[in-house]
């Protein structure tokens, strides 16, 4: 499943209509019928259904939906919130069809009338505005949206809730708060932003006949699903041994935070790494070893329980290096990160405090021949970019793409919608996970899973996507079967990795 901007969606429609030759009325008919089929699953024949239609393609889809519902025996009528002269082209064609089929269209923009209408409506189908909305709504649409949001009716938006921006980077908007959204063809970027996603409610896509030749040109962003995981996850060979599944090194931890590196090492082994070595302070080793007996250990020097730079780490002995969690922010600790950047010739994954120490070294990264993976949460990403967190969250796709391309690194931007970005600017959104992961230690577990995935025989970009998928899916299955979003712990997620493989890959 791809993700598009408003401009990309317009380009696809234009190509389908003007270059391939598909009649726009046919695309509108296809979209409306497909959306109507999805709406019928959420309504009853006894419901009073009102389709609020505007003037553009979104309104045209609304007229097709109204006609289809009416023909299928539902109580459906249209409230047209624009003057008659505003409805033209394909939308007017489908309005006339609806009327000729016995449909009722009430044209009104009077708030007093609309208040009465919504009070006596069971289901509102929002087909007023599409993906071209820009800026704050003007009267009377702003009042209509407010009235809808205050209504008791169930709201189903068409393609996108009216008033909601399709793209990132928009602060000021007023939008319909939908219970459900039926998306036409391809989800828009705002469905994956913390500030706008909730307006969609539950959403799903329907196909309306865009040719594969057209959609194939718009794969800059996609969603990583269970099918993606199944198709890309490498099969374990029957006669493989531990060396075939990689030797990983985890550097981090201190006397006060031994749990972070312990969880990372444990998660890596649970995910499938062949051999894991935990490099930490002498004081942290007992705590880590009691939690993860299968790992081996490399004792590093420390000052007051914090890692320092006084030992040469044999990076050549490992296939991938993970560092940062629990290492602290002391200056002497930062030399370990510098050493890893300068000496490691294998993939390097940097998380947590390692990102703080990496910031002065960013200009060196694009000159490295080995890949570098950064796993920041929004606060850490904002620190690397020198921007406020809120600014990052308004445009996470753009900022991470710019950063990844500039420094030639892979970025896993963690959050409600985790975005994986490659040095070429290709972006993938993970489809799994829930609010139970919003707890200390979750990031350490993800880093360990990422280490294990990078060690497997799969392309690096797919490894990162599969790591995020497994992390989130483990949490989802735990919430479904035995836990709540309140009590879920990072250590529970490690144990839940087993269920992901058994459930999603049919491994017994």
UniProtKB/TrEMBL annotation:
GO biological process terms held by the UniProt record: metabolite repair; nicotinamide nucleotide metabolic process
Note accompanying the cofactor annotation: Binds 1 potassium ion per subunit.
EC identifiers of the protein: 4.2.1.136, 5.1.99.6
Keywords: ATP-binding, Isomerase, Lyase, Metal-binding, Multifunctional enzyme, NAD, NADP, Nucleotide-binding, Potassium
Cofactors demanded by this protein: Mg(2+); K(+)
Reactions that this protein is recorded to catalyse: (6R)-NADPHX = (6S)-NADPHX; (6S)-NADHX + ADP = AMP + phosphate + NADH + H(+); (6S)-NADPHX + ADP = AMP + phosphate + NADPH + H(+); (6R)-NADHX = (6S)-NADHX
List of residues binding K(+): 58, 126, 162
Binding site for AMP: 414-418, 443
Similarity comment: family membership: Belongs to the NnrE/AIBP family.
Subunit note: Homotetramer.
PANTHER family in the record: ATP-DEPENDENT (S)-NAD(P)H-HYDRATE DEHYDRATASE (PTHR12592:SF0), ATP-DEPENDENT (S)-NAD(P)H-HYDRATE DEHYDRATASE FAMILY MEMBER (PTHR12592)
Protein's name in the database: Bifunctional NAD(P)H-hydrate repair enzyme
Source organism of this protein record: Lentibacillus halodurans
Gene: nnrD
């Amino acid at each position: 499943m791809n993700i598009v901007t408003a401009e990309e969606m317009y380009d696809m429609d234009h190509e389908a209509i003007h270059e391939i030759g598909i009649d726009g009325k046919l695309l509108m008919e296809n979209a409306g019928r497909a959306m109507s089929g999805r709406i019928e699953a959420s309504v009853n024949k006894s419901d009073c259904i009102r389709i609020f239609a505007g003037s553009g393609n979104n309104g045209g889809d609304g007229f097709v939906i109204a006609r289809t519902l009416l023909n299928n025996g539902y109580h459906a009528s249209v409230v047209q919130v624009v003057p008659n002269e505003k409805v033209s082209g394909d939308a007017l064609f489908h309005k006339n069809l609806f009327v000729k089929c016995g449909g009722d269209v009430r044209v009104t923009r009077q708030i007093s009338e609309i208040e009465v209408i919504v009070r006596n409506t069971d289901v509102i189908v929002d087909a007023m505005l599409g993906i071209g909305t820009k800026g704050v709504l003007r009267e009377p649409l702003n009042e209509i949206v407010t009235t809808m949001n205050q209504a008791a009716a169930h709201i189903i938006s068409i393609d996108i809730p009216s008033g909601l921006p399709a793209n990132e980077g928009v602060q000021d908007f007023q939008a319909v708060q939908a219970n459900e959204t039926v998306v036409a063809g391809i989800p828009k970027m705002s469905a994956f932003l913390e500030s706008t996603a909730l307006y969609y409610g539950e959403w799903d896509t329907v196909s309306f006949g865009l040719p594969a030749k057209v959609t194939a040109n718009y794969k800059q962003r996609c969603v990583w699903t269970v099918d993606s995981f199944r198709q890309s996850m490498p099969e374990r060979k029957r006669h493989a041994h531990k060396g075939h599944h990689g030797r990983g090194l985890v550097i981090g931890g201190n006397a006060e935070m031994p749990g972070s590196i312990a969880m990372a090492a444990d998660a890596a082994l649970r995910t499938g790494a062949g051999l894991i070595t935990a490099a930490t302070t002498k004081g942290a080793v007992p705590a880590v070893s009691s939690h993860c007996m299968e790992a081996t250990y490399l004792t590093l020097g420390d000052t007051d329980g914090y890692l320092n730079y006084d030992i040469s780490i044999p990076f050549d002995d490992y296939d991938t290096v993970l560092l940062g969690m629990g290492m602290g922010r002391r200056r002497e600790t930062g030399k370990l990160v510098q050493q890893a950047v300068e000496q490691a010739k294998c993939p390097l994954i940097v998380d947590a405090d390692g990102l703080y120490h990496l910031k002065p070294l960013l200009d060196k990264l694009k000159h490295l021949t080995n890949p570098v993976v950064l796993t920041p949460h929004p606060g850490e990403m904002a620190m690397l970019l020198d921007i406020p967190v809120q600014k990052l969250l308004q445009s996470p796709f753009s900022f991470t793409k710019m950063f990844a391309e500039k420094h030639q690194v892979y970025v896993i931007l963690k959050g409600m919608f985790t975005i994986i970005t490659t040095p070429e600017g290709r972006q993938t959104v993970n489809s799994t996970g829930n609010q139970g992961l919003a707890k200390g230690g979750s990031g350490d577990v993800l880093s360990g899973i990422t280490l294990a995935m990078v060690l497997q025989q799969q392309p690096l970009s797919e490894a990162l996507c599969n790591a995020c998928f497994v992390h989130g899916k483990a949490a989802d299955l735990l919430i479904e079967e035995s836990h709540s979003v309140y009590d879920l712990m990072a250590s529970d997620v490690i144990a839940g990795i087993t269920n992901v493989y058994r459930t999603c890959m049919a491994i017994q």
